[in-house]
Design goal:
By secondary structure, the protein is mainly alpha-helical. The protein is built from eight helices and two strands; from the N terminus they run αααααββααα.
Length: 119
């Protein structure tokens, strides 16, 4: 039996981007995102930042937890910044094409992309 949303979030690891592109999957992720603690929300969003930043339980730097894209971008070099932004764009493009804009997670990720993307 599952004890908390964090247990469920672990089951979705590696599948967030795929589920966000599907109408039913987006609904399930939205429900999970809305009842999850902040650390789990961050881990769900981190999957769209790129593989290297979502492995091993989410995005973090030694001693600190990164809660938003701006913090991640401030902690990496410029080539990795471009890779993260490219990954986020590639993950969100199919979601936007299918007009699956209702999940709160999509709103957060789109806001972060628009805020951090150059030009």
């Amino acid at each position: 039996m599952f004890g908390c949303p964090a247990d469920l979030v672990k089951l979705f690891k590696g599948h967030v981007a795929e589920l966000l592109r599907h109408p039913c999957g987006a609904d399930v992720l939205d429900d999970l995102y809305n009842v999850s603690p902040v650390s789990c929300r961050n881990a769900l969003c981190a999957e769209l930042y790129g593989r290297e930043f979502s492995l091993f339980g989410g995005v973090s730097t030694p001693g600190d937890s990164i809660s938003h894209l701006s913090q991640l971008l401030a902690s990496v070099d410029s080539s990795k910044k471009q890779a993260v932004l490219r990954s986020l764009f590639k993950g969100l493009a199919p979601v936007l094409e299918k007009a699956l804009l209702h999940p709160a997670m999509t709103h957060r990720l789109l806001r972060e992309l628009l805020t951090e993307a150059p030009g």
